[in-house]
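Newbie here. two chains, one complex. Structure please?
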Amino acid sequence: MRNQTLKPSFLLLSSLIAVCIYGQETSNADSVIPYGNNPLAGHFAQVNGIKMYYEIYGQGEPIVLIHAGGGSVADCKPQIEYFSQHNKVITADSRGQGKSELNTDFLTYRQIADDWAELLNQLQVDSACVEGYSDGGIIGLLLAVHHPEKVKKLAAMGANIQSDTIAYYPWLMEFLEKLLTYAETKIKEKDTTDNWQQYEKLVYMWTVNPIISVQELHQIKCPVLILGGDRDVVRLEHLVLIYRNIPSAQLCIFPGETHFTTWFNPVLFNSTVEKFFREPFKINDSKLLLEKWYGFDLK
Amino acid sequence: MKTKILTGLIIGLTILISKNSIAQHPFNLDFKIPYGNNPIAGKYLKVNGINLYYESYGAGEPLLLIHGNGGSIINMGYQIEYFSNKYKVIIPDCRGRGKSELNTDSLTYEQITSDLIMLLDTLGIDSCDVIGWSDGGIIGLLMGINHPYKTKKIIAMGANVWHDSTALYPWVIEWIKTSRQEAAKMLSNHDTSKDWKVIYQRMALMDDQPDITLTDLHKIKSPVLIVAGDKDAIREEHSVLIYQNIPKCQLWIIPGGTHFAPISQHELFNETVYRFLQEPFNRPDSRF
């Protein structure tokens, strides 16, 4: 979300990414799949009063991919291609983004998480491994809190549980405020180059949401992998706080990486998440090992 | 190899549970080459009033490995194995450990650092990359602070820069204090079943030191990779703080990792560290 927020610059960034990702494949016409706009894989579901767009790829145990804020299914390309080789990948446009309708005056993460739960209900997915990136990670956490039966394991990349300078670096808060002003100005100017009404709802959500308490995190039953780059937009202290307050959690900080690891280092990101989904979850403990190590030494 | 470790662990556990009196090392450290006790690779050097034992393997750019508090050369066998194909690996037994003499009543990190600097000087090594684990990570950071011309890149795994409960988990501090008391008791009982003098010095070292300030960290010129397990003995917040105060730094928190990752996750550890050593230091930011 934070990544995608700045519309003008973000568009630039995303086209850059698109060039990086798609550029390699232009020589092979077969592999160019229009993710996010693929009639062969795309469907609409009637969910909580909106038409919600989703795409399905591959076969096997289901894996749910949730895109970042202001994005769409298209952004999940590196993850769709990786996970659909051995799994059934379910991915969708969150409310008010991509091809999914907004139909609300006040967009919230909770509402979006409820939409995803209802979509999984309709697709008869009892429970699945969920990978969420940025806003997708927040939605994943809310799914795990409020729809625990739906989430087998959760991998949340660059997610935060509040929207302030405790969670974000100050530059990002300033940036979100600027975006909001920008959208409001466009609405006042009656600009029609974009759906500014819808955009304003999304940006407003970023500035006031999420509000997830640590008590809510304590309720999470499933194993969770909290991920971030060592130069993420979310403060490392905040990622540690989230990690610490989920009963069964692991923490992964990628060295020399940013909030955009999903795109810029998909090999590292995908393999880390795949390993977490595949291996039985366990919390390793230095205490036991240390006592044994030194027990050997002292006894 | 993994199954071997696992089997070793299970056997170790079983023996520990069934016969509490026989202590078993929790990890498999069987290597083809007798690291730490290898006459072909080992040498002694007189530094700062002690005989310092070290081994060297391979050829190429020099890479210094520094083991942890309760360790010796063999504990970094997986790193010697991996890196000796790529570097000239130099690994000492730090003062009082392995085959190196103690010869002090007040062991300090600065003293060990000075020993290693003298070792490098004697070997004619102007500067080198450093991988330090636990206490070895602290010594690596001290080399970067006090002898900035000596270090190229530094990897510090499971290192702390001070020793209170904001840096270490309370169970670590409690355990260090208990072990220190036990060693003191054994010393006063004139028990000779172990070298309690060395054990006491080691425990006191962790109990009373280090006292590196954030201002000290700001002085480090070398690129540094701070590494910790997500269930380390060091608080994640402390690793984050160290990372934030070194000018050129990356942070790696290993999911499902412990303080013992250089052994238990040696493949991932070695590969990630090697990438850091090989690639030009880069500091991308999310800020656009």
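Moderator note: Residues 11-23 of chain B have pLDDT under 50 and may be disordered. Chain B touches chain A through 51 residues (CB under 8 Å). Thread marked as resolved.
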